[in-house]
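Design a sequence for this backbone.
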């Protein structure tokens, strides 16, 4: 006959027949009350909680609790883990001028710091030697500069200069095609 108040162990989902442990609003076989991180049984009275599950003190200190890479203070609530570091949600922000929160957004890393893609482009992406705007995709390298393919054209006649065409540079390092170049 089944026990009228048969409880189910949150760890193994099986019925608990003998000793029951109640913690975190759940029931457990004592041997299944285990740390969320290292899976080791938690025997001591002291444990921590993370997302409704028990975490042993050791794991809590090394994995859950963390020092924010932004402000160097302890993060006790929601930890953002990115770039191999931990951050307060409100401190994981763009290192460029916009300072927006980057959690859950795409970002680009430079020297261990996160940047939103717009600021990264503005600050660090190569600039086109022709139009001076950032080059996101493939760039053409010529005259110590990067160029959009369409921007690499003769300064005088504005004809595009192909990769294999001959050209010379004027003193502003702008290309002059063979036709105009003499
Ligand atoms: Zn169990
Ligand atoms: Zn643990
Ligand atoms: Zn912080
Ligand atoms: Zn930004
Ligand atoms: Zn350009
Ligand atoms: Zn030309």
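Sequence:
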């Amino acid at each position: 006959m089944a026990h009228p108040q048969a409880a189910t162990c949150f760890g193994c989902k099986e019925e608990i027949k003998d000793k029951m442990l109640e913690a975190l609003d759940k029931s457990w076989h004592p041997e299944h009350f285990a740390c969320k991180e290292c899976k080791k049984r938690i025997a001591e009275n002291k444990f921590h909680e993370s997302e409704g599950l028990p975490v042993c003190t050791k794991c809590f200190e090394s994995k859950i609790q963390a020092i924010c890479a932004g402000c160097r203070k302890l993060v006790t609530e929601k930890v953002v883990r990115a770039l191999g570091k931990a951050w307060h949600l409100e401190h994981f922000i763009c290192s460029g001028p916009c300072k927006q929160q980057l959690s859950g957004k795409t970002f680009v890393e430079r020297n261990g710091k996160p940047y939103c893609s717009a600021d990264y482009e503005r600050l660090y992406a190569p600039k086109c030697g022709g139009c001076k705007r950032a080059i996101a995709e493939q760039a053409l390298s010529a005259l110590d500069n990067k160029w959009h393919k369409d921007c690499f054209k003769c300064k005088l006649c504005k004809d595009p200069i192909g990769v294999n065409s001959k050209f010379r540079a004027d003193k502003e390092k702008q290309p002059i095609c063979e036709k105009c170049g003499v």
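The CA atoms of residues 117 and 162 lie 30 Å apart.
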